[in-house]
Write a structure and sequence with these properties.
single chain, alpha/beta, 5-stranded parallel β-sheet, 5 strands, globular, binds adenosine monophosphate
Amino acid sequence: MMYSRILLAVDLTDESIKVANKAVALCKATGAELTILHVIESLNYAYGGDVPIDITDIQAQLQETAKERIAILEAQLDVPVQESCISQGGIESEIHRIAEEKRVDLIVVGSHGRHGLALLLGSTANGVLHGAPCDVLAVKVAKDKD
Ligand code: AMP
């Protein structure tokens, strides 16, 4: 078997289904188990650890919304999902951490055709690729189209 555990990282935007369907096709072809991960970027992390308000409620709400959206995504998939995880922290580092924890052998992410400054800064897919503990598949998602 080529892959036995696949980790699908989703940002839970509309394009997630396209990325998910590639992961599903691979699961069907290889018999791999599918785990879904969404990372809630912690506000402290995003704003340099210095948020002067209580963000507990906001984080809880983000968690609830993420749970609902993952359930909707799961229902659209053609294979059973082994596990769905929501974690908090830096996106790339959490994807790496969960990939190691779950001993996955493939990470599937979406990749955007980026231009200008965004290209310089690099995409999440780029960040995931560097330091990944296993193979990474970046599914081409054209953001400007459809
Ligand atoms: P981006 O470079 O931010 O446009 O994201 C590209 C891909 O990275 C997405 O299609 C997802 O596969 C992954 N990704 C981005 N944000 C998240 C997130 N918060 N949690 C999990 N995966 C994510």
